[in-house]
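Hi all, long-time lurker, first post. I run a small reading group and we've been trying to get comfortable going from sequence to structure in the token notation. Rather than ask abstract questions, I figured I'd post a concrete chain and ask someone more experienced to write out its structure so we can walk through it together at our next meeting. Sequence below, copied exactly:
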Amino acid sequence: MSLSALIFWVTYLGGIVAALFNPAVGVTLYVLVYHLNPETQWWGGSVQAIGLRTSFTVALATGIGMLLRMPRLHHGARQFPVPYVFALLLTAVALGSLVWGLGLSERGEYQAEKLIKLMIISFIIIRCVRTPLQYQLVVFAWLAGVFYVGYEATGGVGITRGGRLTGGLGGPDFAESSGLAVHLVATLPLIGAVFFMLRSWWARGLVLITGALAVNTLIMTRTRNALAGLAAMAVTTVLSLPRGYRFKGLAAIVAGTLLAVQLTDPAWWRRMESVKTYSQDPAAVQRIRLWRAALEMARDHPFGIGLGNFHHVVMDYVPNLTIIRAAHNTPLACLAELGWIGLLLFCAVVGLTVWRLGRVRRQAHYLPPHTEIRLFRWTSRFHLAWHATALRAAIVGYLGCAMFTTRLTSEDFWLLIALAAALHNVSKYVVAEHELEDTKVPPVVLLPPGKRESELAARPALQPTHSLIP
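-- Answer (accepted) --
Happy to help. Here is the structure in token form:
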């Protein structure tokens, strides 16, 4: 057994046991395993030999731990926030479309099963990730997975065609170039936020290396949809900053872009220049035809053609199309397969999630700049506003890319939605902790004439905890 396999098994088995006692550890391990996809790694022969479904096993152990420990939600946190309720309704419509659509396909059956799984995982994340430390550890696990994916890409692992990285890295949702590019675009703002939160320079250096590997891998994919995601992400980030910091934020984005350009090559520029001449690009022209076909499907079938059916139904709408094709546009794929109701629910999930993150960011302005968190001897800072800004930029950047690729049932998208709901619950915790700090030193209050001290009731003291124990 190789050293890499040994490290994996020690981490994995230890995490499984810990998840039974502390489901938040299970969520962290799940995110890491999702990125690594051990079954496909060169050191994953032992995993393949026993036929272990690593992600499923982690989710099962975490679910059992959640039932045994039943972590409580305090301070007004909700297990069923409004975006998650709309996500459940969207799942119900997707399952119903298999009945009233144009039949049940193998792809539709697979995507329906995946959506149910994603709703369960989201439930576990929202339930178990409740404190700043727990949320920050999940984000660290996300970045650790991206670090490994970038390390593999730089080392020559993956499938390369014509100098372009086309797949073979990480989990199944980003094992091909478009999916990998979307995932990396969404990770960049998370990297930026964590970089400024860490205290030690060695930790910041490690995060900086992760960012460099992510950018280099993104360039290696030579995926054009990344431009739309990066542009949307940059605009969202700058507008989210306070007015006095917007120029600095814009300058940082420009500087980062100039550094990233140094990693490009002539082949990358030639592919990006094809965006200007899309009318002469057969692939771009075909995508426009696919988008028109999706609108025609919605006109003919207002309630949708059924989840997963676009790939083969499109052959009836696009002349001379002999092979199955995806819609290459997430909203239009949702419209064609789930109808207008499905598209409305999808927009509600995304819109409410982005709006709530903005609300958390504004709320953080009335709180202390950061919260100190501790795990054994390791300390770090948790910045609620930075996390909310980064996560909102990640989701907007993801959606910018998703306008040119189909990501309706991609797990990384729904993980971002679940993390946004969890961060909203974490904000309740931070507010309660801030109120507790205020009660420790009673402020001097000047009573108006005729008022008595008994009329100013003190707020109840709450007991905060930075531990992982539910």
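A couple of things your group might point at:
The first helix runs from residue 3 to 21.
The longest strand covers residues 371-375.
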